[in-house]
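haha ok so turns out i had the wrong file open the whole time. this is the CORRECT one, sorry everyone. sequence first:
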Amino acid sequence: MNTLTLWDLTGWEFAALAFAALLVGFSKTAVSGANTVSLAVFAAVLPARASTGVLLPILIAGDVLAVLTYRRHAHWPTLWRLFPAVAAGVVVGTVFLLWADDGIVRTSIGAILLLMAGVTVWRRRRADADAEDEPDGVVTRAGRLKARSYGVLGGFTTMVANAGGPVMSMYLLSAGFRKLGFLGTSAFFFLIVNTSKLPFSAGLGLIDADSLLLDAALVLFVVPGALLGKWAVTRINQRLFEQLVIAATVVGGVQLLLR
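then structure:
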């Protein structure tokens, strides 16, 4: 794999990656979608394709911490609806990675994120501000179609660039999830999905001994980020939470288009 080893990094480069790892922990327990900034940092310091292999174990560490924090708030009917479509998206993303260059990958995902952010803002403005705590959108025919569509997009984007967070954030917001249900459902979703991606990433040569050594040094920074996120989320109201998630998605989409 064409990547830098731990010993090749300068102090500033390692500091940037450490900050990005801390931000992963924060995003997993507070503002999902904010780790698109981490994606951009990793891609700036490391070769773009190789950066996805280094970032994946960092994301899984954050997922474990998020599950431990919000495991009681997951909405499993939604998860079961999503998983088959996500699996299809991961397969499509793997095939896509075999021929697409970095420019095509970034442009495609950036455009998808911005489109979904716009659709979500429009839908939320039409929705009742006092939505129920228990989402029921997956039980209708339109809800099932939406779950499948977002599931395929989520699987595709998470496979090609670890950028599935904003996609699923937009889906969960549009389905009416409240803050804790949102975080609990996304925690289990990404732990399962990211773990299932490991053999695909290894098969593509994106994970090897050098990348895992770098991960071992960076994973320590995920824990304080997760603790900071747990502290912050209790101080963020629902409206601000939704605004931050959408803003993080827009920032991630713009970054991908401009890189």
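Residues 157 and 164 are 5 Å apart (CA to CA).
again sry for the mixup
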